[in-house]
């Protein structure tokens, strides 16, 4: 299907649920906010939404080291609070819950026990800069970004692939703030949000395990940039933009075919699709809100 003759469709969101007052840390100073929010206290900063097989939504609260579960009716429950900064979260086909933790590296959550353990905390005895997000490949590989405080002034952010046999490959070493990432439907191309470059990079994966001909797939604007990514079965890319108050939907050729507008604040940090790919959940982090949108049948 070609889209070049049509302007991007506007899709509205509605409020699904917001973090209850009992869980908000109003006026509490955090080291994460000192570094990332100019020292201004935040009562939460939610990210990393992912659906489990029962339709429950898991998400993280970065500054206070918390992981929540939100029931289909919008009820929140605290799964764990620990010493860390959980940033990205994904659930494997087998039900494992994996976390990219800015402080601790890759981790695995056991929600039944309310425990979390380290999977990978360093590379060749070198600590990570600050892991941000992750994606599970078709063969069980874990692709993850090591963002830290990188940007155009310091383009040294990294993208890694951890294979099931324990092999760790560094795919990108010059990223200006690598953030969300997702594979194409065939598992042959990796898309990476480069937040401070305000762009999405396209990373072809070669048969020998290397990458080649990495290019800029899409460009944006704003005071922040693309954050979390998702992809549907038709190869459409969903780009949560952390300062424009939208999730932008890109066709496989890179054309913007729709924009999903926040009904809350401007800080759309991530997006998740339900199993059918018809319902989208967006984390709006400035208000601690979960937004929902329905994907039109004719798009």
Largest sheet descriptor: 5 strands, mixed
Query: How large is the count of helical segments?
Result: 1
Q: Using the coordinates shown, work out and report the CATH topology.
A: Neuraminidase
Briefly note the structural class of the backbone: mainly beta
Q: What is the total domain count?
A: 1
Q: Based on CA inertia axes, which overall geometry fits? A: globular
Encode the helix/strand succession as letters. EEHEEEEEEEEEEEEEEEEEEEEEEEEE
**Percent helix range:** under 10%
Task: Strand order, main sheet: write it out.
Answer: 1-24-23-22-21
The CATH architecture can be given as 6 Propeller
Q: Got a strand count?
A: 27
Evaluate the radius of gyration: 18 Å
Uncertain segments are: none
Distance between the termini: 10 Å
Protein architecture, described:
This protein is 2% helix and 49% strand. It is mostly beta strands and 299 residues long. It has one domain: TolB, C-terminal domain (Neuraminidase, 6 Propeller), CATH 2.120.10. It has a five-stranded mixed beta sheet, with no helix packed on it. A four-stranded antiparallel beta sheet has the order 2-27-26-25, with no helix packed on it. The longest helix is centred in the first third of the chain and has 6 residues, at 31-36.
